[in-house]
Specification:
Layout: E1 9-10, E2 18-21, E3 30-31, E4 36-37, E5 47-49, H1 62-65
Antiparallel strand pairs: 1-2, 2-5, 3-4
């Protein structure tokens, strides 16, 4: 039997430029599915930039746009 672990982060929509940590992440954690390495401590539920976000550019997360 193969055990599957839950994904470390959640991307709500493919167009989002942030992902959400599903558990606490420590600096150096590699998020292979996003091709990024965590720089510091990230508590569960916090957003992580999945790519460079320019000054003034909106951090896009589908759940934060539904108003």
């Amino acid at each position: 039997m193969v055990q599957m672990s839950a994904p470390t982060v959640l991307r709500i929509h493919p167009a989002d430029n942030v992902v959400i940590a599903r558990r606490q992440l420590v600096g150096g954690t590699v998020l292979a599915q996003e091709a990024i390495t965590v720089a510091g401590l990230v508590p569960p539920g916090h957003k992580i930039a999945a790519r460079a976000i320019a000054a003034g550019e909106e951090a896009r997360c589908t759940s934060s746009r539904s108003r």
